[in-house]
Amino acid sequence: MKEYYGVENPLGLAYSQAVRVNDTVYVAGQGPDTLECPVAEQVRQTLENVRNMLGEAGLDLSHVVKVTVILNFAYITPQIFEKIYVQYFQSPYPARTIIRSDIGFNVQVDVIAVA
User: Fold this and answer.
1) pTM of this structure
2) Contact between 26 and 68 (Cβ < 8 Å)
3) CA-CA distance, 4 to 81, in Å (whole number)?
4) Which is nearest to 45 in space by CA: 90, 103, 105?
5) Residue 93 has what DSSP assignment?
6) What are residue 74's phi and psi, to 5 degrees?
7) Which long-range contacts link 81-90 to residues 24+ away (Cβ below 8 Å)?
8) Is the dihedral of CA 69, 45, 19, 82 positive or negative?
9) The pLDDT value given to residue 22
10) What's the pLDDT tens digit per position in 32-45?
C-alpha cells in the first residue's frame, strides 16, 4: 500500500514530495523556501521542510536512516552544513552522502525514514 504526501508541490511539477510504502517513507529533495536569505537560513529552511514532510507521514527526524545532501560548494560548504545538521539530527546519525553540485540551488536534502 502506498500513501502520497505533498502531491500539490509548490513548483507544480509531476512528483510527490513524499511517498510511504509500508513502514518506509521516501522524502523527495527538499530545498529552502527562498535563495534570498543567508546560506545558514537556507539550510535551516531545507531541514525544516524535510521535518514537515516527515510529520505529514506521522514520523520525525529520529526515524531517518539515510540522508542525501546536494550542496553548491560555492555558497555552502560541508562545514557550514554540518554545524546546522547536528542541530536537527542526533547520534547515532543516519547514513549520509554529500554531493557537490552547481545546478541552480544551494542546498537540497532527501531522506529515507522507517517507522
Assistant:
1) 0.94
2) no
3) 29
4) 105
5) P
6) -65, -25
7) 81/43, 81/107, 83/40, 84/40, 84/43, 84/44, 84/47, 85/43, 85/47, 88/47, 88/51, 88/61, 89/61, 89/64, 90/62
8) positive
9) 97
10) 988 899 999 999 99
Dig out the grid coordinates for 53 from the structure.
Answer: 514532510
- What the block records as the C-alpha cell of 57 is 507521514
The C-alpha cell 542526533 sits at: 90
Give the span between the Cα atoms of 31 and 41, in whole angstroms.
11
Helices (H), 6-112: 39-56, 78-85
Strands (E), 1-115: 2-5, 18-21, 24-30, 64-71, 95-100, 107-114
Cell of 48: 525544516
